[in-house]
Amino acid sequence: MRSLLLMIARLALCAGMMTAILISALSARAGDAETAAGDNQIYIPLVVGNSSSPGTPPAPTPIPGELHGTWVAGNLSSLQLYDPATGQWLPEVLGLGQAYELRADGTYTYAAQLTIGSFPCVSRSSTYETGTVRAQGAQLEFIATFYRNRTATCGGAPSETTTPPGPQQRTYLIQFDAGGFGQLYLDSGTATTNFVHKGGPYGQPAPMPVPGAIVGTWRSGGIDPATFFDPETKTWDESPAAGEWYRFNADSTYTYGGFASRVVNGCTQRVWLYVTGTVEGSPQALKLSPEYFPGPSLVRTHDSCAGSEPLQVVWSGGTEVLAWALGSTGRLTITRGSSVDTYTAD
């Protein structure tokens, strides 16, 4: 099940730990979190939870043709941040962001550059990585064989990391515009990043209808979709069973509901999540785009030791890309990052 308990942790982080996490993330393998600041986007590398110590990498194998080329998120002007032959970082490349060059033979180059903070405390990070990428259905696995990261925190002297991260799992979906140019969505399991194919021009991606095979309601756990939340009265089931559900509609809209609880130091923490939005898909992947207004997309939390009523706010989660498959028994399997969940038709 999608870890709604992580959401409790995220809400706690918002109370004062976020700055430390952002700074420590500067020296980590680039994931796909991004923070908007006005019209500018700052791309923040994060370590995802499904990495391990790298061993002997597999031999490269060809990847689908739709993935070939250079994909850019942000305005990074070049992937040439580092020269492996000389061991030297190259003169500063313009722009912030991240980019992949995915080659037909199953090898890749990855580069990322970011700046975070403001004078007098400005932190900078650059990452350069090469390796192999394997494609299986809507899943990509990146296995780094060469890695360099240089980070200078708060204007201090730069430090360098050379140990490659473990294998990185990504769920992907590509949408094409009328001119045939693609937009690549990579989902790490914690965030989704939208990359555009270098070379453009870029138009509005063509809509992708929801696959007919999954239209309907799908449930995991004992949760009851019928009583979980009433969008007209905005009332919740106060004591639902744990679980989650999706409802995919033929008009390319969807609804998601989920509930989880845990006990920490004698305090019961509970979280309810109700999301509506649009869904597009391919035979292997789905792109879920929440709507915030008119909504509702809401998250509700309660801590039994806080001595107050449940807190309810508009859900601010971003786009998700999920791999999907129907098994021979009719059960729906949804994969995001390294997390695999199974649902039955309701």
Description:
By secondary structure, this protein is mainly beta. The protein folds into 2 domains: 194 residues, no CATH class; 134 residues, Lipocalin. Helix content is 6%, strand content 49%. It is built from 3 helices and 25 strands. A hairpin with a 3-residue loop joins strand 19 and strand 20. It is globular. It starts with a helix and ends with a strand.
Short description:
By secondary structure, this protein is mainly β. The chain is built from three helices and 25 strands.
Number of helices: 3
Sheet-strand content, in percent, reads over 45%
Average pLDDT rating = 82
The side-by-side strand order for the widest beta sheet comes to: 3-6-7-8-9-11-12-13
Which residues sit in consecutive blocks of at least 5 with pLDDT less than 50? 5-54
Query: What number of structural domains do the residues give?
Result: 2
**Tertiary shape:** globular
Give the topology string: H per helix, E per strand. Answer: HHEEEEEEEEEEEEEEHEEEEEEEEEEE
Say how many strands there are: 25
- What gyration radius follows from the Cα positions, in whole Å? 21 Å
Largest sheet: 8 strands, antiparallel, barrel
SS-derived structural category: mainly beta
Distance between the termini: 16 Å
Helix fraction bin: under 10%
Keywords:
346 residues, mainly beta, Lipocalin, 8-stranded antiparallel β-barrel, 8-stranded antiparallel beta barrel, 3 helices, 25 strands, 6% helix
